[in-house]
TrEMBL record:
Record-listed heme c 2 binding positions: 172, 175-176, 216
Pfam families to which the protein is assigned, alphabetical: Cytochrom_C
UniProt keywords, alphabetically: Electron transport, Heme, Iron, Metal-binding, Periplasm, Signal, Transport
The species this protein was found in: Polynucleobacter sphagniphilus
Name of this chain's protein: Cytochrome c553
List of residues binding heme c 1: 75, 78-79, 118
GO CC field: periplasmic space
Top-level taxonomic group: Bacteria
Record carries keyword Signal: yes
Post-translational modification (record): Binds 2 heme c groups covalently per subunit.
Cytochrome c domain sequence ranges: 54-141, 151-239
Cleaved signal peptide residues: 1-34
């Protein structure tokens, strides 16, 4: 009986050592596997589409020379060197906010702003072209102008700075700033702009031939010809 008991105890001890050995070996094997396994690849970052990176030099090349291979006509012929046009038939574009220029070019291309010449000019332009041209023009020095009608300067100033309360016309300065510099990405620069061009746009808004700025359609519908001419002339002299 004593011998049987001793054998039983020995068997239990051996079984315990075996179990411990297997546990240690298993743990070591698992650790080796973890070290050898390649690290999990990091999750790919979400790609957020952004605006095209601008290249003012490329914009200047298109503005000044066009690109005959794609049917892009140079802008300089009408809008002048550096965006400083020679007459009110074409707007001054020097120092205009790039976001505003891009919007207008897109509107011409889409047909939401009607102008036979500009719709044709914008048709071959890519979004990158538009951004480049706008970036180039935005870096140019503003083109100064002058108010020429002394008989309406007070009326023009009154409308620009205070609006026409009796007609519900807000002050232009509220959006285009007191000096006509506008607000980037929202409202265009008007200071120094040709009075003839500014007046023509106010008429176009009022008559519905330009419809890509609903707020301006509402405002201009409340103004008469004399008021439009007066404020357009006043804006030409802002700086």
């Amino acid at each position: 009986m004593r011998q049987t008991s001793q054998i039983s105890k020995l068997t239990s001890v051996r079984a315990g050592f075996m179990a411990l050995a297997l546990t240690i070996i298993g743990a070591g094997f698992s650790a080796a596997q973890a070290e050898e396994a390649p690290a999990a690849a990091p999750a790919a970052a979400a790609v957020v589409p952004g605006k095209p990176k601008t290249d003012p030099a490329a914009g200047e090349a298109l503005y000044s020379n066009g690109d005959a291979s794609r049917g892009v006509v140079a802008c300089v012929g009408c809008h002048g060197p550096n965006g400083k046009s020679a007459s009110g038939a074409w707007p001054k574009l020097a120092a205009q906010h790039p976001a505003y220029i891009v919007k207008q070019l897109k509107n011409f291309k889409e047909g939401t702003r009607a102008n036979a010449v500009m719709m044709g000019m914008a048709a071959p332009l890519t979004e990158q072209d538009m951004a480049n041209i706008a970036a180039y023009l935005g870096k140019q020095e503003p083109s100064p102008g002058v108010a020429t009608n002394k008989d309406t300067i007070e009326l023009g100033q009154s409308i620009y700075r205070g609006g026409i309360a009796s007609k519900g016309v807000p002050a232009c300065a509220g959006c285009h700033s007191p000096n006509g510099a506008g607000i980037p990405s929202q409202y265009p620069r008007l200071s120094g702009q040709w009075a003839d061009y500014a007046n023509a746009q106010l008429i176009a808004f009022r008559e519905g031939t330009r419809m890509n700025a609903p707020k301006m359609t509402v405002i201009s519908s409340k103004m008469n010809d004399k008021e439009m001419k007066a404020v357009a002339d006043y804006m030409a002299g802002l700086h």
